[in-house]
Amino acid sequence: QVQFVESGGGLVQVGGSLRLSCAASGSTFSIKSMHWYRQAPGRQREWVAGILRSGSTNYEDSVKGRFTISRDNAENTLYLQMNKLKPEDTAVYYCNTLPTAAWGQGTQVTVSS
Questions:
Q1: Any residues with CB less than 8 A from the CB of 49 and at least 6 apart, and which?
Q2: Distance of alpha carbon 24 from alpha carbon 113, whole angstroms
Q3: Is pLDDT of 109 > 80?
């Protein structure tokens, strides 16, 4: 089993930046890829970005060029640098594997206009 603890969310104005962190613990040796997901109010949870152990990355179209996913394999930590934030980025952000394991509590990101 793997557990995730997300942090770094907050309230930011349009155009601002935040850096999210995710600490993974437990059976982390089995993790091949790590991903960020988000869930906006009244909407289904959606995939945002992913990174393989090799460092290869992929992004959902709406965040390409604005978000950067990275990982520290030695520390079992995942990051999401979010720049040029928009109101539509407002959501609870979660990290997880794919396929997903148990969800953490997430971290709230609110972008105010």
A1: 35, 36, 57, 58, 59, 60, 63, 67, 69, 80
A2: 33
A3: yes
